[in-house]
Design a protein that fits this description.
Elements: H1 3-59, H2 69-81, E1 89-93, E2 99-102, E3 121-126, E4 133-142, E5 145-154, H3 156-191, H4 193-206, H5 221-277, H6 282-314, E6 320-323, H7 324-336, E7 342-347, E8 351-354, H8 356-373, E9 379-386, E10 390-397, H9 404-407, H10 419-424, H11 431-441, E11 447-451, E12 455-463
Parallel strand pairs: 7-9
Antiparallel strand pairs: 1-2, 1-5, 3-4, 4-5, 6-8, 9-10, 10-12, 11-12
The protein binds adenosine-5'-diphosphate (ADP).
Adenosine-5'-diphosphate binds at residues 365, 369-370, 373, 397, 399-400, 402, 410, 415-418, 422, 427-433, 456.
Amino acid sequence: MKFSYKIVLCSLITMAAAFGIGGYFFVNDVFKASLEREIEQATDDGSILKFAFETAALNIPSKYDILQNSVIEEIGANLENSGQGSRRLLRLSDENREVLYASDGFVADTVLLADLEEQMRAYQIIHPDRHYYVQTGIMVNALGRVLYLETMRDVTEVYAERTRGFAVYRGLTILILVCSSIVMYIFSCWLTKPVRLLTRATKKMTAGDYSYRAEQISSDEMGQLTMDFNHMAKVVEENIQKLKEEIRAREDFIAAFSHELKTPLTAVIGYADMLRSRKLDEEKHFLSANYIYTEGKRLETMSLRLLDIIVTRRYEHEPQETDVAELFGYLQDLYRERDDRIVTFQYEPGRVLAEANLLKSVLLNLADNACKASEPGGIVEVLGENREEGYCFGVKDHGVGIPPEECRKITEAFYMVDKSRSRSHNGAGLGLALCVEILKLHHSTLMIDSTPGKGSFFWFVIPWEEVPADET
Ligand code: ADP
């Protein structure tokens, strides 16, 4: 059953119960008040008739000391017809409750008189032949006789009034319930609209439309729910996007890896085949063997770099305070003997929270790349300075530079701007990818400023303090 129907149904049941019970008590209260009025009227009538009977009995000249039955009958008949308009219903009984006179239609029994005492008035409601009467009884003392006077007052109309009251109230209740159910249905549709909008949004998302958002039409709890839902949808969409990008990156990686593997392997197989199937002169023999050796070396470098990247990704980072002089000193020693490029060092003293060996690897990769990009005799500057956010390392060259659209891609695994140039330097496009992984461990990012033909500046900042894991 729909939620809006449930709201309507619950409200209707509540209203029906409230109207039913309220109506019953209201009509019944009105009925009781009317009936009490009629009973009072009937007992008053009884008292008046008693008085009238006693007066009449006193005024009738009698030759006997006590009142005769015939006189009682006569007075009874007179009293019956003395009323204004309608005929009275009365009954007169003697000391033994034997009826002396009864009006036509006085159908009540004499049970009422059983315990009747002097000065007492008794009444009961009787229900003969679909009529309702108030039967009253009272003791009459006249000329030495004790008599009982009973009256009957028709109160059928009061009961009919109650039945009519119930019928009118029932009709009114039904009318109100029908009208209010229409109004409540409209209200419940309005109240449940946010739920319908949310349902539509979940269906759209289930069908794959992750950018769909539920419309927020109120600022109450339902509005808050819609806002939370939309926020959740945004996070889900972002996560899915991230996963898609990761999958794409992995596919690209596998494609590039197979390609990079295939190229040297084809050459190695080709030259090896030549060596074993043909008799080559000494020079060709050396060239073929040399080719196999260099390509084999390249494969070895590539597999070692890949291993480095994988190991770095799974690495449990344990940074230690390191003097930057140690890092720069290591590079200085390495490049001291090199005479094809001029590598200069300029750095401020400082200490960083890092793993020295990993940072050395980054600096070495950047310096090597800078040398490869520079012409023989070109200058490569290795720089270091203290900044507000951390210690900044940089490697600057004045070599070939990188086109702006390539800058973003060169940190991807196997990406090389100039493939033949990189391969001639034994490159496999994995050095910067390794640098990025190492810098990630140090909560740092590799920044690249480069102008084609003028040179490049690769730099990164190692923050002063270790960033908590959940903020990365
Ligand atoms: P490789 O092993 O080929 O050097 P890297 O990941 O270190 O791989 O570098 C990726 C590519 O980025 C290189 O092939 C080169 O084309 C380009 N590159 C890196 N550093 C520089 C630089 N300083 N100047 C120009 N190009 C560079």
